[in-house]
Amino acid sequence: MTVSLKKAELHCHLEGAAPPLLALAQARKYGVETRDFLRDGAYVWRDFTSFLAAYDAVAGLFRTESDYTLLTETYLDELAAAGAVYSELFVSPDHGEAVGLGADAYIAGISRGIEAANARTGIECRMVVVGLRHKGPERVEWAARYAATCRNRLVTGFNMAGEERIGRVADYARAFDIARDAGLGITIHAGELCGASSVRDALDHVRPSRIGHGVRAIEDPALVARLADEGVVLEVCPGSNVALGVFPDLAAHPLRRLHEAGVRVTLNSDDPPFFHTSLQREYAVASEVMGFTGAELAAMTRTAIEAAFVDEATRVALL
Ligand code: ADE
Ligand code: ZN
């Protein structure tokens, strides 16, 4: 897959994008032993629960505003070099709070990284604040209130990630109301670890314009038709899905079937080094394994830009 094909991504978790070498350098700086989650230059995890633990451990290696600036610039520079013009980063103020940095400094550090990468490469990036589902509805509402009031122009959306098998979507609806009322774009992880009913619940209770993953909607043809009818955009992450065992292999992945059913789909890397992928690899796999043509891949990039939580002037310039 050529670097020259224009790419855009809507679904990448910032700490999940930390290159292992950068995480190692951070660990040395802070005297942290990494054996439990990083060995032989690769992140180590067995299942979704240990993946989340490894994610938290990596996040714990970024402790200052400038650590977050460095992480953001490192990721965006590499993405721009792979032909990406736009990225939406999922950022979790909870992780900033966990290291004692605080949400404001966390967002400020990322913001500086976005601006520096934009000045150097032209890549546009916005932040989607993520509430962590396994922390419970009150904490997710805290994240939504933070996103609604933080007044950083690069924070443009709200999402809920984390352990999808905990709680009911309806219990988190108020957090999404807070974010929507503040004018933020709405997306939510669903249909990844849980089946089609989780996607239906997300549509009914949260009314998102996009869904993170959503791929297990394929288990219910009526739901696939509803997604297509309503024009909901799926942030599809094939490499992540296979790495986490959502589907046994890329040949079994439903991206093509969803596309053929008229669902608006995009390609995304999720937590690239954790899943041995990159946005460039996702495009390559879609082409070489799933048979998408260059025109179809270009259309997916266009769908991502159309569905981006970005101001109209920037969107038009990106298209
Ligand atoms: N946080 C980071 N990656 C995630 C994923 N794939 N699903 C849910 N929460 C996440
Ligand atoms: Zn995700």
UniProtKB/TrEMBL annotation:
Adenosine deaminase domain segment(s): 7-319
Cofactor: Zn(2+)
Site (Important for catalytic activity): 213
Keywords carried by this UniProt record: Hydrolase, Metal-binding, Nucleotide metabolism, Zinc
InterPro entries (UniProt xref): A_deaminase_dom, ADE, Ado/ade_deaminase, Metal_Hydrolase
Residues involved in Zn(2+) binding: 11, 13, 189, 270
Hydrolase among keywords: yes
Binding-site residues, substrate: 271
Active-site residues, Swiss-Prot/TrEMBL: 192
Cofactor note: Binds 1 zinc ion per subunit.
Source species, domain of life: Bacteria
Molecular functions (GO terms): hydrolase activity
EC number: 3.5.4.2
Catalytic reaction annotation: adenine + H2O + H(+) = hypoxanthine + NH4(+)
Job of this protein: Catalyzes the hydrolytic deamination of adenine to hypoxanthine. Plays an important role in the purine salvage pathway and in nitrogen catabolism.
Similarity comment: Belongs to the metallo-dependent hydrolases superfamily. Adenosine and AMP deaminases family. Adenine deaminase type 2 subfamily.
Protein name: Adenine deaminase
Species, as recorded: Mycoplana ramosa (Mycoplana bullata)
